Amino acid sequence: MTTASGTDPRIDLQFDDNRLLPLLFGEHEQYLSRIERQLGVNLISRGNCLTISGPEDAAGAARAALDALWERLKRGMDVGPAEVDAAMRIATGVDAESRGRALASITRPEAVLKTRRRDITPRSPTQAAYLKALAENELVFGLGPAGTGKTYLAMAQAVSLLITGRVDRIVLSRPAVEAGEKLGFLPGDMREKVDPYLRPLYDALYDMLPAEQVTKRLGSGEIEVAPLAFMRGRTLANAFVVLDEAQNTTPMQMKMFLTRLGEGSRMAITGDLSQVDLPNGVKSGLCEAVEVLEGVEGAAFVHFSVADVVRHPLVGRIVDAYDRADARRKRVEKMGRGGSLSADTLSADTLPAEIEE
């Protein structure tokens, strides 16, 4: 436990349902220990009471996070390590006055997406806004760095609509050429060539549906996972369509894909405009679509940031460090001192301390 000083504020919480306390505290109070380590506070439980002590801002963040997690439990929502981390991340990412409003985004039962294997809820205010956009719009763009849940939540929405009968099928797609690799130069038949590119989509499916259902629905065509090139000439009706890694489409490919939308269908397009793998001089179709379709009725754009990264906390810091390096590189190019940063410019002392470690 963290040692509190005599001047640290003390916050006493009392909970009115002892049956829920083991779910809030975690097995062997592991969630309390997690909060202590992350926020630098001291938590002491006695019966249905909990005392928080530590630096004022950290203690306030701990209280806000615990209040939000308690609210989830009272509303019949799950609390696990990911939800505890999300509550802490939100509570420490905003000022004290905004905490309650920001944390409310992860306590609303109406935001729960039900799949066969698990219930999925937003873990940041932006994720909550994204799920709302997916529910209300026929075309949604999820834009931002890796690890923010853009594709996973779009697929969760698709699976939820499929199992409730609101769409007849799911179509998941990605550009088949990434990071400079060309399918023609890879060994194996077409399926062997494209499966590695589509593997992340399969992984998400198996996280939401039992394996036998995934196999059955893939076999029946209820779920289709295919490279972008296979979409040409088709009209996708009564389907939920997801295009992942859309930053690696050309403008022509993006227009082709967007015009596949048929009656009764919805479409989610996800990508990170800072990770374009197209050849130099080729504009990203996602970038053009954002410029052209902004303001079009029925289309929504949700922008994620490093603050929304929900993977390991280090991932957010890594993304932030690379963003800073890219910004420095662009400044150097603008000043006409070359197209890349020197080793000195990218030395450890220019990186955030948490990455340097």
Task: Write up what this structure looks like.
It comes from Nitrospirillum iridis. One of its GO terms (molecular function) is ATP binding. Pfam families: PhoH. By secondary structure, this protein is α/β, with parallel strands linked by helices. The chain has 13 helices and 11 strands. It folds into 3 domains: 98 residues, Ribosomal Protein S8, Chain: A, domain 1, CATH 3.30.1370.10; 191 residues, 3-Layer(aba) Sandwich (Rossmann fold), CATH 3.40.50.300; 43 residues, no CATH class. Strand 2 and strand 3 form a beta hairpin. Helix 7 crosses helix 8. The longest helix has 22 residues. It starts with 9 loop residues before the first strand and ends with a helix. The N terminus and C terminus are likely disordered.
Write the layout of secondary structure elements.
Layout: E1 10-14, H1 21-25, H2 30-39, E2 42-46, E3 49-53, H3 56-74, H4 81-93, H5 99-103, E4 113-114, E5 119-120, H6 125-136, E6 139-143, H7 150-163, E7 169-174, H8 190-208, H9 211-220, E8 223-227, E9 239-243, H10 251-258, E10 266-271, H11 285-293, E11 299-303, H12 313-334, H13 353-356
Parallel strand pairs: 6-10, 6-11, 7-8, 7-9, 9-10
Antiparallel strand pairs: 1-3, 2-3, 4-5
Helix pairs in contact: 2-4, 3-4, 6-7, 7-8, 10-11
GO molecular function, one term: ATP binding
Domain PhoH-like protein: 120-323
Family: Belongs to the PhoH family.
